[in-house]
Amino acid sequence: MSKTKSPSLNILINVAIGLAGIAVAMGVSYYALKRTGLYKRIFLDTQPIIQEAENVAYVSDNFVGRKLKPLTQIHYQTPYFDTRVVTNSEGFTGRDYFPETDSYRIAILGDSLVEAYGVDDTNRFNYLIESYVYGKTAGKTSVEAMGFGISGWGQVHAYGCIKHYVLKYNPNEVWLMFLPINDIGDNTPYLNGPPAGPTFVYKEGSDTEIEDIRFGFVKVPDAAHAERFRRYGNSQVLADIWQRWTYGLYPYFYSTEKDPLWEKIWSHTLQTFRLIKKICAEQNVRVRVIYRQTGYEQDAGDWGRFKEDVKKLLGKEIDLHQRLGEERTQQQLAAMGIEFISLRDMHDKAIQTKSDEAEVRKHAQLADFLSDILLKTMPQDWSRSRSLGRK
Known about the structure:
Number of strands: 11
Strand order of the largest sheet: 6-5-7-10-11
Number of helices: 14
CATH class of the domain at 60-193 and 241-379: Alpha Beta
CATH architecture of the domain at 60-193 and 241-379: 3-Layer(aba) Sandwich
Order of helices and strands: HHEEEEEHHEHEHEEHHHEHHHEHH
């Protein structure tokens, strides 16, 4: 006895046959259109051609790697605030300055802390230093605190900036913000290649002594990358160094033990400080480093977790001391004639300026701290020294 198909099954079969027929028809039609050229005339030739200028926040710069686009409004919004900041004519946050001034002039260089487009110009710490010094001296002392900061910058970028953007303003002082875990990596071709990273110019006959730092593609891109791979390791080696950085190499900053690769990487930062000191000394510019502690250096819990992560990655314990990196850096900089200011004395972990509701308060606190140090350490005869050719 034969079974009768249900009406619903007949419907499904008919639908399937119909869809299959449509698919075959569409395939044949598409093939025919492609073969005859009708596809291009019907579809491609009717699409609009778009050619327009689009705004960008950052631009490449052969002197410093990259910086903000000059005279551009930057919109920065988080759950806590909403700011719009216009960059100055050279591509930094803050106002433009005249070449000459009767004020004591400081150039402050750093990364996102100095860039700080998360706060309005009048809430940024370098602007507040100017205001606080003027107020604390009842208008008797005028200081200009010029900000030259870009997210992702290290001291290598500061060196290029000082040479090409800062010294023409004849500053009395240069301040270098230094956050070791970020900046040491930013300063080395092992972790930061061209065009935004440094290309070192080595002294003739030396593979270690740096005499200048350049950015962009000094050679054509393929040749620049090949040269980097030849000097520092192929792409796989450099990728491995990147993966090991936080818990496999950077920990030696706090250790009495030695690692050959770490010593090479750290030497790039130390040599950069020497180059900065050299070009500033040629114009009698005072150099200070503002040392910013990482979370590992400020918090016992963070330090303990850091040590455990280091042990896990290295497969062994190494001798680590929470303050050794800062202390050793201060000694090495002192030997170069570079002064040292530690933000540890602020006793405030939040000074790392994360993008939260306390951002404005943190800039005010930093400005208050640094303006007090400045007033205690400024030379009393600064106006006379400026009149003797520094103007």
